[in-house]
Write a structure and sequence with these properties.
With about 375 residues, this protein is α/β, with parallel strands linked by helices. It is built from 13 helices and 11 strands. Strand 7 and strand 8 form a beta hairpin. The site of zinc ion (ZN) has 8 residues, from helix 2.
C-alpha cells in the first residue's frame, strides 16, 4: 500500500524476516499466519473453486509485494534506501529511510500502482492475444466469469485504483502532496493530503456502516489512523526543517576519559541526569558510552573494567550545521544519542529526549534556535 517514512517508529514489532529482495529485507507480520491458515482451510474444504480461490489470494499478495518492491526500486534509483518491506494481511508497507523531496516522492509513489497496472495490462494483453473471444466488452463487464488469470488481472486493477485515491496514507495521497508541494509549502501540502485521507476514511466508514460491510469499516479505520499519523509526522518535520542541529543540541554535558573505569562512569551517571557519555582521549572523541552499554558492563565486566573496552567505537556523528529534520531520521535508525561535531571537534550531544523537548517547545510557539 503506502511507502511511508516514519523516523520515529523503529522496526515494526511482531514481524518476522522472511527473505531479501533487491537488497530490501521483507518481513511478514505474524497475523499473516492467520491468512495462511485461511488459505489452507479453503483448499481443505475441497470445493470446486477452493484451489482457485487460494491461488487467487496468494497471487494478490504476490502482487502487493511486487507493488512495494516497485516503490523500493524507484526509491533506490533516487538514492533513498528502503529500510524494510512489511507485509500485513491487509496490505504492504515499504519503509523508506527518509521522506524524499517532492519531485522524487512523486516518482516513488507512482512506481507502486504502476507495477499493478503493468501486471493487469500484461495479463489482459496476453489473454487478448491467446483468447481474443473472452477479452471483449462482455468479459470486462463480468470479470467473475473469466478464468483465474483474469481475476488476478482485475485484482491488480483494483489494487492500483485503490492506491491511487488522492488521500493519505494511500500512494495517491503522496502523489497529491508532492504535486501540491511544487507550488506551496510542504507542510501545507501534507495537511491537505492528510485532511483528504481523514475525510475519505469517514466516508468509507459511514458507507461500511450503512451497508454493513465490516471489511470496509476495518479498512476505513486504518486509513484514518494512517492519515492522522502522517499529519503528525509532517508537523514534526516542519518544526525541525531548516534548523541546524546546533540549535537543539545539549551543550552542557560531561565526558569520560577512555581510561575511566566502569565504576567512575556509573558514579557520573548517578550524580548527573546525563545518560550518554562521550568518551575522549587526548582531547578527541573516541567513542560513546550509553546507559544500556554501561548497565550491561556493570553486570558482566564489573566496576574495574575500562570504559574504552565497552563503549561504542563508532557512534553516530552529526555535523553541527546539518538540518535537524535529517538528524531526526538518522537517529531513528542509529540510536537514542548522537555526537554533534564541528569538523573533528565535539561541540554537543543530541538525544531523543532533548529532540522531543525541542519539538514540543517549537510547537507551543517558543522561538529557540533557528
Ligand atoms: Zn504503494
Amino acid at each position: 500500500m503506502p511507502a511511508t517514512s516514519q523516523p520515529a517508529a523503529q522496526k515494526i514489532p511482531g514481524t518476522v524476516r522472511a527473505f531479501t529482495a533487491f537488497g530490501v529485507p521483507v518481513r511478514f507480520h505474524f497475523t499473516f499466519l492467520l491468512l495462511a491458515v485461511f488459505l489452507l482451510a479453503l483448499v481443505w474444504q475441497d470445493r470446486d473453486t477452493a484451489v482457485g480461490d487460494a491461488i487467487f489470494i496468494a497471487s494478490l499478495f504476490g502482487s502487493v509485494l511486487l507493488h512495494e518492491l516497485g516503490h523500493a526500486v524507484m526509491a533506490r534509483r533516487y538514492g533513498v534506501r528502503t529500510l524494510e518491506i512489511v507485509m500485513f494481511p491487509i496490505g504492504g508497507v515499504a519503509r523508506l529511510e527518509k521522506t524524499p523531496p517532492a519531485r522524487k516522492e512523486l516518482g516513488i509513489a507512482i512506481a507502486g500502482p504502476a507495477v499493478n497496472l503493468v501486471i493487469a495490462a500484461g495479463i489482459l494483453g496476453a489473454l487478448a492475444v491467446w483468447r481474443p473471444e473472452i477479452a471483449g466488452p462482455e468479459a470486462l463487464a463480468e470479470p467473475e466469469n473469466g478464468n483465474l488469470l483474469e481475476r488476478i488481472a482485475y485484482g491488480n486493477l483494483v489494487l492500483a485504483l485503490f492506491n491511487l485515491l488522492p488521500a493519505f496514507p494511500m500512494d495517491g495521497g503522496r502523489i497529491l502532496r508532492s504535486v501540491l508541494a511544487l507550488s506551496r509549502p510542504e507542510e501545507e501540502a501534507t495537511q491537505v493530503a492528510s485532511r483528504a485521507g481523514r475525510a475519505l476514511a469517514v466516508m468509507m466508514g459511514l458507507f461500511g456502516l450503512v451497508t454493513a460491510n465490516f471489511m470496509l469499516l476495518f479498512i476505513a479505520f486504518f486509513v484514518y489512523l494512517g492519515a492522522a499519523q502522517e499529519g503528525q509526522a509532517a508537523i514534526g518535520r516542519s518544526l525541525t526543517h531548516g534548523i541546524p542541529v546546533r540549535a537543539a543540541m545539549i551543550t552542557r554535558f560531561h565526558t569520560l576519559s577512555h581510561a575511566a573505569t566502569i565504576q567512575e562512569a556509573a558514579r557520573l551517571m548517578l550524580e548527573t541526569t546525563q545518560q550518554d557519555f562521550p568518551v575522549l582521549h587526548a582531547g578527541r572523541v573516541v567513542g560513546l558510552l550509553d546507559r544500556n552499554a554501561l548497565l550491561r558492563a556493570i553486570a558482566t565486566e564489573g566496576g574495574e573494567a575500562y570504559v574504552a573496552g565497552v563503549m561504542d567505537r563508532n557512534p553516530l556523528r552529526l555535523p553541527a550545521d546539518m538540518d535537524l529534520s535529517e538528524a531526526v531520521a538518522s537517529m531513528a535508525e542509529a540510536g537514542p544519542c548522537a555526537l554533534v561535531m564541528e569538523g573533528d571537534r565535539l561541540v554537543g550531544i543530541l538525544t531523543r529526549e532533548n529532540l522531543s523537548e525541542f519539538i514540543l517547545l517549537r510547537r507551543i510557539g517558543m522561538q529557540i534556535g533557528g
